[in-house]
Amino acid sequence: MLSEVPYAVGTRVVVQGKRGPEVATVRGEAADPDPRGRYGAVLREASPEDRAQWDDLHRRGEDLKWLLRSRARERALKVKLVAVEFTLDESLVTVSYSADERIELGSLIGELREHTRARVNFAAIGPREQAQMIGTLGACGRENCSSNHLQEFAPVSIRMARDQQLPLNPEKLSGPCGRLLCCLQFEHTQYIELLADLPRKNAKVCHEGTGACGKVTKLHPLAGTVDVQTDQGPLYGVPVTELRRDGPAASSRAPEPDAGA
Fold it and tell me: Domain 194-250 belongs to what topology?
């Protein structure tokens, strides 16, 4: 049964996770549950017994993770075991792993059977899921978004970085997982709206005040200005309201959203 109580931020609650009941911490204001959603709904506030059970299961999961890593090395299995997680009712234990090639891990089930009667599920995960489970610091110095608040991974593309006028440097655009930063998607919609009012890069424009004409060399969407290279020299931070656009190449059009990767 779903709880209708709006719990305060920081409250420990029992939620319906992807695999079963889990203990979680409230991080934001309450919202109406999606009737089509299959998980994420709050069931109740976590009792002292729930919290004690969850902490014990977490410790057992850590012990089993190291046990399985040892057994995998003995069997020369080329696999990285990332996490072993129980559901709150201990009906399911999920072993998350990554491997370069398809690998059979059935031989490890017997090792788990000696320590739990829970149903065993092996889940192959990617670099983003690994960073989410392990927890890392982002380039901003804060906990990475996937470990902090993201519930799902939305597609992120290099087009998002271009639209936000960011330098296309892989080291600066990649997160700890080695993939494009998840935060590139957070403000992309706003940038598309702002870019709709600006001329395109390399568009031919003329400055109303000086009459100088040239090509747009850089866009500043947040400020609503552009840099223009003219025959008389460069003009920096020119408000778009002071420009006259010439030719079809200068017509305003927001970039089309990229399908993502």
Answer: SH3 type barrels. (2.30.30)
